[in-house]
Amino acid sequence: VEAVHLIADGKAPRIPQPKEGATYEGIQKKENAEISWDQPAAALHNWIRGHDKVPGAWTTINGQAVTFYGSSLLDASVPAGQELTIKGASRPGLVTKNGLVIFGNDGKMVLVRNLQFEDGKMIPASKYFSSDETTALELTEEEKKMAEDIR
């Protein structure tokens, strides 16, 4: 009751919170989210999952920072896929039809579903080696007329 009265009277003491020991914002920095590859698969998965979406766990592939999103542990035989060299990883990843398979130092696997590049472009990891195929939109005569009416 006394504290409420002090606040109501505008006489409550104000003690500024010290900056020392405040670590939350420091954790959220992108440079602190780089993946350390000398870990078991479960630790890699937890690291990627723990940084999903902000700031995003990242690594270097072909000289470019690539951020990993949507990981899950993969408990199966090694799937067929195209090898992808990842800087610092003990063995190359595999781009498969389901995503990018990465390996922990224990030989177990993690499946990563999405990748984001430095320019902000995000793709399904399974499409890493796919060329940027763009198809022209072909409109029917009716759709062309509708587009003209809208214009």
From TrEMBL:
Domain Formyl transferase C-terminal: 29-131
Pfam families noted in UniProt: Formyl_trans_C
GO MF terms, alphabetically ordered: catalytic activity
Signal peptide from the UniProt entry: none
Classification via SUPFAM superfamilies: FMT C-terminal domain-like
Protein name per its UniProtKB record: AL1L2 dehydrogenase
Organism: Dicrurus megarhynchus
Name of the gene: Aldh1l2_0
